[in-house]
């Protein structure tokens, strides 16, 4: 899933300051799971904005609504009646959702309430970690299902770098496991260490960036 976190309150107050009527729009997908922009977070942020406005003696109408997913036009339609007449939309989705809202409402400023961080998942309640850097040309079959791009601090494809000690990464030995140690251990357990000894051709990064936004076209699904 996409992992995001709410922007600092100070920044959100500045963003919303010029507006008297806003829509706080949540997303029911990834950002709900990572507790950054779902229904509950929409309620909390709206209340905080209202409290701050009251303190300053300024009026604010904060409408609230959470759609199933902000990254699909079909679901965004639900926001239409709530967006009617608002001066700005504060999207609590990831950057993708913000952009879909901006496309749908060309006359209303759409601002991000979240900082979109990475693709990953939870390690324990309240802690999420990056798992995939979206390189577009997955090599997990060569690395035991552990991504060196997202999980090695230096994104090395030919690790370890020589700085790992006791399975920990030199960048932060307290908190980060050496991804290449994990890869080695896993490949050993799988009895596939010989794969690590094979010389691999240079990774084709053109899948990650080849001159514009990436696109997938599934001919069998195109109507
Ligand atoms: S190799 Fe690329 S696609 Fe596969 S998990 Fe890592 S970053 Fe993601
Ligand atoms: S110690 Fe391991 S995880 Fe850290 S940078 Fe070196 S190879 Fe990557």
Number of continuous helical runs:
9
Bound molecules: iron/sulfur cluster
Integer-rounded radius of gyration: 22 Å
Please identify, by name, the CATH architecture of the largest domain.
Answer: 3-Layer(aba) Sandwich
Strand order of the largest sheet: 3-2-4-5
Tell me about the largest β-sheet: 4 strands, parallel
CATH class of the largest domain: Alpha Beta
Write down the CATH topology of the largest domain: Rossmann fold
Query: Helical content, roughly?
Result: 25-40%
Tell how many strands the DSSP assignment holds.
Answer: 7
User: Are there runs of 5+ residues with pLDDT below 50, and where?
Assistant: none
N- to C-terminal distance: 27 Å
The shape is elongated
Tell me the domain tally. Answer: 2
Average residue-wise pLDDT? 95
Summarize the structure.
The protein is 30% helix and 19% strand.
